[in-house]
Write a structure and sequence with these properties.
alpha/beta; Amidase signature (AS) enzymes; eleven-stranded mixed sheet; disordered N terminus
């Protein structure tokens, strides 16, 4: 939706009087760990309004974010948008559960407003403003959300270098984990993860190709949902790989993540894969069942155990919670032999194709991947002072998507990943598969990058990411004050059953807690 058209909604002359009257008696609630339903209840009761809440989040960003660098830009129009939504509420118009709720979105999602869209790269800081909102951004506006700002990310969604530091971008610097500030937030949706962990907005939108929603959610004690490919449009999102890319919600609770997910689902004429979005829903709240684990058969992916004993211990405790809530557990293997090589090839081919198309449409001086590579070389003192761009160079060297190498790689990647999940679920009649989301966050290392500093690394994101199937992470426990998550994944469009499982586990485990180490919390 165009910005001008959006701002015209509800622009009644009398609304100014109504807004002023409510502001004289409204005050922002305590924002720490507050849910969407609590914010809505407070606004419905007249004890606060969207403008007050939005201002309070902006104040909080100004106070806290310099320590964690999660937000690269606050929306210049946020307060005006919130005030207009308050006027709609006063007139009796409510768009839904996101009406007046401040939401942060990742800085690779186009917005046709005063904010920049850069993928964290200095190469796009002076690029023309996108001509229209990304489909996801338009859906959020239609749902009544206040797009509060853009979050930092691992530059180019962490597809630039094999020795990058998660959460670093030329535009935003290094994002830090709010639980222990010298630890990684994980990437690439690092800013979305740390901002919500630090209570800088109600919820946030991240994007994932492989692990970029799940890992920063798990590392920040959040719920993250990586939806089925095709449930949410990719139009207007700076791409890595069309066969894996998707946006998804990041929140402090399963309920909030479910609300945000429903608001983003939709069929988009500009993204053919969303023709299957009709299999999705706009309201997932009916799957928030405290007894959602009862009778569920869940496969325990044992091939992801054994590399980190402390994580194994946490997982075994989590499995006991699942069983105590009525789940039946089955030990399984999820074989992924050969997947890493084929998936890597796919990303390299698809990045070049997708980025070239995006940059051509976007306009400005950076019109291609070749232009981007040249910009980085000319500005190496700013863009490449910590790591290089070998992934960009490798992608630039690839042929087009008609290449036999690409066609074979995409066939292998999808076949291996989908057969592994579907085969395991068919064999044991499973409702979902579970495994650890992450190990403890590693030390930030700008010299050697992630690979030089992380230890006891655990991740189960690849099967769902490559297959295009859904995955949900939920806080499970803490290890030395660092959050550990548990993941649930399954067949395509099985979000309802995964939400049932995740919500029931969340209610039983109650593992989420706010950061202790930010000075504002002391």
């Amino acid at each position: 939706m165009k910005r001008r058209k959006f701002l015209e909604l509800g622009a009644l002359a009398s609304s100014c009087v109504l807004i002023h009257a409510r502001e004289t008696r409204a005050a922002a609630p305590n924002l720490e760990e507050i849910s969407i339903s609590d914010l809505q209840a407070a606004m419905s009761a007249g004890s606060t309004n969207s403008r007050q809440i939005t201002q309070a989040y902006i104040d909080r960003i100004q106070q806290i974010d310099p320590q964690i660098k999660s937000v690269v830009e606050v929306n210049h129009d946020a307060l005006e948008i919130a005030a207009r939504l308050d006027a709609e509420r006063e007139s009796g118009k409510l768009r839904g559960p996101l009406h007046g709720i401040p939401v942060l979105i990742k800085d690779n999602i186009d917005t046709a407003d005063k904010m920049k869209t850069t993928a964290g790269s200095l190469a796009l800081v002076n690029a023309p403003t996108p001509n229209e909102d990304a489909f996801v951004a338009a859906k959020l506006r239609q749902a009544g959300a206040v797009i509060l700002g853009k979050t930092n990310l691992s530059e180019w969604a962490n597809y630039r270098s094999t020795s990058s530091s998660s959460g670093w971008s030329g535009r935003g610097g290094q994002t830090r984990n709010p639980y222990i500030l010298d630890r990684t937030p994980c990437g690439s949706s690092s800013g979305s993860g740390t901002a919500i962990a630090a209570n800088l907005a109600a919820v946030a939108v991240g994007t994932e190709t492989n692990g970029s929603i799940i890992c920063p959610s798990a590392n920040n004690a959040l719920v993250g949902i990586k939806p089925t490919l095709g449930l949410i449009s990719r139009s207007g999102i700076i791409p890595i790989a069309a066969s894996q890319d998707t946006a998804g919600p990041m929140a402090r609770t399963v309920a909030d993540a479910a609300i945000l997910l429903g608001a983003m689902v939709g069929t988009d004429a500009n993204d053919a894969i969303t023709s299957q979005a009709t299999k999705g829903l706009t309201d997932y709240s009916k799957f928030l069942k405290a007894d959602g684990l009862k009778g569920k058969r869940i496969g325990v992916a044992r091939n992801y155990f054994g590399s980190a004993s402390k994580i194994d211990t946490i997982m075994e405790s989590s499995l006991k919670v699942l069983e105590s809530c009525g789940a039946q557990l089955v030990d399984i293997q999820v074989p992924m032999t050969g997947l890493a090589d084929s998936s890597s090839q796919v990303l390299s081919f698809e990045f070049k194709d997708g980025v070239n198309k995006y940059l051509t449409r976007r306009g400005g001086s950076i019109k291609s991947l070749a232009d981007l590579i040249e910009f980085n070389e000319k500005h190496a003192d700013l863009e490449m002072k910590y790591f290089k761009q070998e992934l960009l160079l490798s992608s630039q060297a690839k042929e087009n998507l008609e290449s036999r190498t690409y066609r074979l790689a995409i066939l292998q990647a999808k076949t291996i990943s989908q057969d592994a999940i579907d085969g395991a679920m068919d064999k044991d009649k499973l409702d979902a598969i579970t495994g650890p989301s992450n190990g403890p966050a590693w030390l930030i290392d700008l010299v050697s990058g992630d690979g030089g500093s992380r230890n006891s690394y655990v991740s189960t994101t690849t099967p769902a990411a490559v297959s295009g199937y859904p995955n949900i992470t939920v806080p499970a426990a803490f290890l030395s004050e660092l959050p550990i998550g548990i993941s649930f994944w399954g067949r395509a469009f099985s979000e309802p059953v995964l939400i049932e499982i995740a919500f029931a586990f969340e209610q039983a485990a109650q593992a989420r807690r706010k950061p202790k180490f930010l000075p504002s919390y002391l």
